[in-house]
Amino acid sequence: MKSIRLLVLPLAVWLSAGCLIRSVHPWLSEESRIDEPSLLGIWYDAGEEEVLFIGGDPEEYRLMLSDGGNTARFSATLHRIGGTLLLVAGPDKVEGCVLLPGNLLLRADLEEDALTLFIPDLESFEERAEAAGLALLPGGSQNDGYLLTGTTEEAEAFVRAQLDDPGFFNEKPVYSFRKLPGKASADPPAPATANPEKF
Model-level pTM? Predict the structure, then answer.
């Protein structure tokens, strides 16, 4: 794997299993869910020329990511555990098809007009999961990704136990967004309007 950047890869590729850590069930329960109005809006990664639109509400944020040629849509919830913000991005449906096979966990560093996202460290994940007795689908690897098959309660206990270790998440962010002026509506625009130049 030449790069572990989550969304620099073509969207159709990274939405498959490769190079990701996914969970069949949500990583975190409703107990830690929070409302953060400043999360809503349009975010732009100038380095990668990609746009993230966040709308909806705390019950189910609606995310749409576009690089101008490809578009991916998600539902998501935001959580706070201690001083850490965590985003759980899960399946969304377009024309009845689930695009994301599983739930992703990202650390979200949110400061005023900056949103930085990090994924768990792939190199150490299998060892951490084995030590915690976390149920994984057989055959997972750093190149093929990992899939948690246990319950939300098990996944959340694992996350809580790892958060004090700074090595649990990659040092390098997968995205470094800046917020564009303006407000988000309740829902992201339709895929036909997903080109960043048309936001």
Answer: 0.81
